[in-house]
Amino acid sequence: MSGKTLMRGTHVLGEAAIRAGCRAYFGYPITPQNELPEYMSSKFAKLDDAVFIQAESELASINMVIGAAAAGARVMTSSSSPGISLKQEGISYLAAMELPAVIVNMMRGGPGLGNIAPAQGDYFQATRGGGHGDYRVITLAPAYGQEIADMTRRAFELADYYRTPVMILGDGMMGQMMEPVVFPEPIDPLSLPRKEWVVNGSKGRGSRIILSLLLDPPKEEELNWRLMRKYDMISDSVPDQEMYLTDDAELVIVAYGTAARIAKGAVHRVRESGMKVGLYRPKTLWPFPSKGLITLCDRVRQFLVFEMSAGQMVEDVRLAVEGRRQVSFYGRPGGVVSTPEEVASILSSAYHAAGI
Q: How many Å apart are CA 125 and CA 280, to the nearest integer?
């Protein structure tokens, strides 16, 4: 497979993972991401060095991920909102054991079982760690098919480099949408750097121990502070964002993923009326790219946050700007997807209300 290829988002993610050297996948079906494990199973069946298991539950699959990660494999699991909730204990274990893994969440409407429509109500769950204890999960938010491919490669690289779980946060619409994609060249897993910490047998060397049960409080505290130092390094080097038509913007809409695509269409419509508006799109949700947003405060008079939720990322935007500028919010939760015309109307009203 070379050149430009037309594929749906979930298949793009699967192909990109395989090309990134992923050779272990464990999961349990849930709509709207079932095409991803389906793709992985069909492709892995043709590889001699890959393992695919449809586990009996989400809990079983995330614990299989822990085992494969400890053995040094590039490993991935995927699910959708309620399924990710079930995996949270295992994700906390991955963070505590400092094991690299990629977790895909194609969000659906919630809370509870909700519906299978695209939504963004899992922002808090992804960016605050989701499970118990002091930990964070690097969270990448693609908006386009090409970014799904690029960020999947990056997710595996970040997971290995920092020895930490990395989440790719998409939604049901993103997973089903077909777009042209150019894939990077595949990686031979045998060419990847050797992991000196893996538990793959101790013949000829000393034993290695990976665990998360630390009954001695000072040792548990030492782990927590080590994790915090690692998260500080991640916060300095990983944040990424897109600024679109922000050079002269007096009002900037902040949105990620599918919502950002809708917002970009709205920005075009409003600019046709002469209003100076732009888009700020976080490409990493944790760490949140606050520094990029702060730079806009020098010339932007107001921010409008648009989310396909009742309002979650808006808290990070308000924390980032620290009261320097007014931050308003517009959201559609539960799987309702706004149109660019609808968001353009909100943008226009906010622009005039701010007296710009």
A: 22
